[in-house]
Amino acid sequence: MLRIRGALIVLEGVDRAGKTTQCQKLVHALQQSGRAAEIMRFPDRTTKIGQLISSYLEKKSNLEDHTVHLLFSANRWEMVPLMKQKLEQGIDLVVDRYAFSGVAFTSAKPGFSLEWCMNPDIGLPKPDLVMFLQLNPNMAANRGEFGIERYETSAFQRTVHQRFEELMQDSSVNWKVIDAARTIEEVHKDIKRLSEDIISLAQNQPVGELWR
Ligand code: 2DT
């Protein structure tokens, strides 16, 4: 019998949009319906590269901007063999941030083009579905104070949001915009439905290559 592959599903959005909560709820719902589903998140702070990134985000160390961008990308590439293995085993991967966060955050810094930022991530496993949790920056700010990590200021988040809007113009990626200003359950219902649809479609197709 032909083994049916899992789907690669990514959640993106600005801070406070509810990505992490929704990833957890989606994995739980898929598991409840009998699928093998697992959560992943980037940056993955558990690896050696991830620890360098974590210390940078916590402002315990400084890294040059190009360097940290490449580390974020390397942190994805180091997980690629495992991701491919899991997808081939039929496991659905629900991923909290991916290359799109990589590009949106670095290109929000002065002097970084989208194109330069996209380059190191070209060829990563292409998500079957990328859901962007849309929340306007004012509403995000109303959900509470920003944290103390790097990038957690409203001015920077506004620019990040603009960069995501530019990335969403790219029709080679299967973007779906989700209104994240609703209740957790309403948002979850949409995410679950879109995910179930893509899981059936993806199983008959090979995993693609991002931005190639
Ligand atoms: P969280 O761990 O709270 O999601 O914050 N980031 C993330 C980048 O700058 N580049 C990337 O490639 C990725 C995946 C977004 C992580 C912070 O790191 C930023 C917020």
From TrEMBL:
A biological process term (GO) from this entry: dTTP biosynthetic process
Domain Thymidylate kinase-like: 11-191
Pfam families: Thymidylate_kin
Listed GO MF terms: ATP binding; dTMP kinase activity; nucleoside diphosphate kinase activity
Xref: InterPro entries: P-loop_NTPase (IPR027417), Thymidylate_kin-like_dom (IPR039430), Thymidylate_kin_CS (IPR018095), Thymidylate_kinase (IPR018094)
Catalytic activity reported: dTMP + ATP = dTDP + ADP
GO CC annotation terms, alphabetical: cytosol; mitochondrion; nucleus
Uppermost EC category: transferase
Nucleotide-binding as UniProt keyword: yes
Keywords: ATP-binding, Kinase, Nucleotide biosynthesis, Nucleotide-binding, Transferase
Membership in a protein family: Belongs to the thymidylate kinase family.
NCBIfam families attached to this UniProt entry: DTMP_kinase
Function: Catalyzes the phosphorylation of thymidine monophosphate (dTMP) to thymidine diphosphate (dTDP), the immediate precursor for the DNA building block dTTP, with ATP as the preferred phosphoryl donor in the presence of Mg(2+).
Protein name, as recorded: Thymidylate kinase
